[in-house]
Design goal:
By secondary structure, this protein is of the alpha/beta class. It folds into two domains: 136 residues, no CATH class; 186 residues, Vaccinia Virus protein VP39 (Rossmann fold), CATH 3.40.50.150. The protein is built from 13 helices and eight strands. The N terminus is likely disordered. The site of S-adenosylmethionine (SAM) has 21 residues, from helix 8.
């Protein structure tokens, strides 16, 4: 196979899955687009017509206690819940099997030329080893899980399930643009995954150097590969490290940012991440974290739906992230000018920005 083919193929890996893999993933798409979304609308109507939704969404336990008995009494809900659970359980294993059937070829797309620095070694927090999103074996359950999860399964499925056809990650660029200053020179992207947000940061702040870090070896390896393909070597680098223990020097960044990292960790770790960001920032520098919307800002149905979905989609910390006072955590750590905002009204993500005071 010529190099040219490999490079152009890299842009649409979902299309390169063999026929069996495509058929299996198409079946998941059909379950999610046809069946579950139609049932979901029925369930929503049932909840809204029942009159049990409270105006105040701050008490999620009370909200669930009011709504769950209504939905559990409907066949539509039980059926869509089972379909959703099953489709989530099968999607990553099908991607892994499709990768392994054409391992030699996919490996050529998913392996970086350069080495990624490993700061974390075996020092991995216990919460990180949970099997998030029903991913068998967790974030590193396969030696190329970063590629399989984000580029094969997510890219292929989500583009079809949520439409858009093109850049399903465009929101990341919109969020990158919302950092408080027009330009930054040294940016750290915590929990960078396969570098989807890191690359948007590189577009938004062309004068900045960027360090992306994540605990998943397979994710940072693929992020590194993606950066090499985008000719960003030297300006963007990756390391395998915990967001709360980056190993980077004090005061070495003017922006510390993350996109959908915080809801993957318990509140004590969120606080440790803010404290690490404070240490990394020079005085006057900013944090800019985008994550799940707080339940108190959501409609009754959306708060119920987020919480139900998190419970049934292997998101163990989502509820805590959506009910913890993140602004208060930022202030406790020493940040000032703390602000929370919705990037899109009523939707995800919710941004938190704050400044490290001069002289701190
Ligand atoms: C939902 S993904 C988001 C990835 C990326 N920011 C993006 O926008 O595509 C969350 C990532 O956080 C990483 N993660 C979770 N806890 C972490 C921690 N304590 N330190 C570093 N990375 C962590 C996971 O490995 C995963 O890659």
């Amino acid at each position: 196979m010529s190099t040219e083919t490999v490079q152009s193929d890299t842009r649409a890996p979902g299309q390169l899955i063999d026929q069996r893999g495509r058929a299996e993933l198409e079946f998941v798409v059909a379950l999610r687009t046809g069946m579950t979304s139609a049932l979901r609308s029925q369930v929503r109507r049932r909840i809204e017509e029942s009159g049990v939704l409270p105006q105040d969404t701050t008490d999620i336990v009370a909200l669930r206690a009011a709504v769950d008995p209504v939905v559990e009494a409907t066949a539509a809900h039980r059926f869509q819940a089972a379909t959703l659970r099953w489709s989530r359980e099968i999607q990553t294993p099908r991607g892994v099997e499709a990768f392994d059937r054409r391992r030699e070829f996919f490996e050529s797309l998913a392996t970086p030329a350069g080495q990624v620095v490993d700061v974390a070694g075996d020092d991995v927090p216990r919460y990180w080893t949970y099997e998030f999103h029903a991913t068998e074996g967790g974030w590193d359950g396969h030696d190329h899980m970063g590629f399989v999860h984000h580029e094969m399964v997510y890219h292929y499925l989500l583009t079809k399930i949520y439409g858009g056809g093109g850049d399903i990650f465009a929101l990341r660029r919109k969020f990158a643009d919302k950092a408080p200053k027009e330009s930054y020179s040294s940016i750290v992207d915590l929990g960078c995954g396969t570098g989807q947000y890191t690359l948007k940061l590189a577009e938004a702040y062309p004068e900045a150097t960027i360090v992306g870090l994540d605990l998943s070896a397979s994710e940072v390896n693929y992020a590194q590969r993606r950066t090499e393909d985008a000719d960003l070597t030297g300006r963007v680098e990756f390391r395998r490290a915990a967001a709360e223990k980056t190993g980077l020097p004090d005061g070495s960044a003017d922006l510390v940012t993350s996109y959908i990292l915080l809801h993957e960790m318990p509140p004590h770790a969120i606080k440790a991440v803010f404290a690490e960001a404070f240490r990394l920032l020079e005085p006057g520098g900013h944090v800019h974290f985008g994550d799940v919307g707080a339940y108190e800002t959501r409609s009754g149905y959306d708060a119920w739906n987020d919480d139900w979905d998190a419970e049934h989609g292997n998101e163990p910390w989502w509820r805590l992230a959506a009910t913890t006072d993140i602004a208060e955590i930022a202030r406790e750590v020493g940040f000032v000018d703390v602000e929370r905002y919705e990037l899109l009204p009523g939707g995800h993500p919710m941004g938190t920005t704050a400044r490290k005071p001069e002289g701190a």
